[in-house]
Design goal:
The complex is a heterodimer of chains A (115) and B (112).
Chain A: E1 5-7, E2 10-13, E3 19-24, E4 29-37, E5 43-50, E6 53-56, E7 65-68, E8 75-79, E9 88-96, E10 105-106, E11 110-114
Parallel strand pairs in A: 2-11
Antiparallel strand pairs in A: 1-3, 3-8, 4-5, 4-9, 5-6, 7-8, 9-10, 9-11
Chain B: E1 4-5, E2 10-14, E3 19-25, E4 30-38, E5 45-51, E6 56-59, E7 62-67, E8 72-77, E9 86-94, E10 101-102, E11 106-111
Parallel strand pairs in B: 2-11
Antiparallel strand pairs in B: 1-3, 3-8, 4-5, 4-9, 6-7, 7-8, 9-10, 9-11
Classes of the chains: A mainly beta (115), B mainly beta (112).
């Protein structure tokens, strides 16, 4: 049973470009979460999605950031017109719908560097 | 507004001794607490959790203690092993919501 898969693992963008980060949850998991970790900080919640629905986006910056989890395919976190402050590790996590243990299974992260 | 705080950014412990990592929280709505372990360039992995209806949960070398009145929890690792060297994050959630609020982490170094 493959774990949470994130790609790319590393992404370099110049200021003003777009960044797209992908996340495939664990098999059987229908809840996806995106977290961001800035250097020397903890993980900050960004958004919680179920298939075709955004459940909670209270941690998403109001502009330039969007997320989706389509019926088919991976969840995508999209950052438009990136700035240097967007440089961070972005972690995706998933959980099963049936078991509400509070435990999240994390991917290895996508590290975005904005030049 | 840091609702989950880990005030020690780093901790060094001799191999074989006990490691104690601390975590404080401010949101009284939190009712489920977790510890995650993270190695460099990897994602966090779940270690142990505790519900607010308990004050202790044990799993092998790992024990988590919860003091609700003090809004404090701690993770004890005994005996500490070199493979325990990692960053440990405390996290909390409220009302069955899986959205986790994380602390800033404590880097544990086990000295051989």
């Amino acid at each position: 049973n493959a774990g949470v898969m994130q790609n790319p693992r590393h992404l370099v963008r110049r200021r003003g470009q777009e960044a797209r980060l992908r996340c495939s949850p664990m098999k059987g998991h229908s809840h996806v979460y995106w977290y961001r970790q800035l250097p020397e900080e903890g993980l900050k919640f960004m958004v919680y999605l179920q298939k075709e629905n955004i459940i909670d986006e209270s941690g998403m910056p109001k502009e330039r950031f969007s997320a989706e989890f389509p019926k088919e395919g991976p969840s995508i976190l999209r950052i438009q017109q990136v700035v240097r402050g967007d440089s961070a590790a972005y972690f995706c996590a998933s959980s099963p719908m049936e078991e509400n243990t509070g435990e999240l299974f994390f991917g290895e992260g996508s590290r975005l560097t904005v030049l | 507004d840091q609702q989950v705080k880990q005030n020690s950014p780093s901790l060094s412990v001799q191999e074989g001794r006990i490691s104690i990592l601390n975590c404080d929280y401010t949101n009284s709505m939190f009712d489920y607490f977790l510890w995650y372990k993270k190695y460099p360039a990897e994602g966090p992995t779940f270690l142990i959790s505790i519900s607010s209806i308990k004050d202790k949960n044990e799993d092998g070398r790992f024990t988590v203690f919860l003091n609700k009145s003090a809004k404090h929890l701690s993770l004890h690792i005994v005996p500490s092993q070199p493979g325990d060297s990692a960053v440990y994050f405390c996290a909390a959630s409220a009302g069955g919501n899986e959205k986790l609020t994380f602390g800033t982490g404590t880097r544990l170094t086990i000295i051989p």
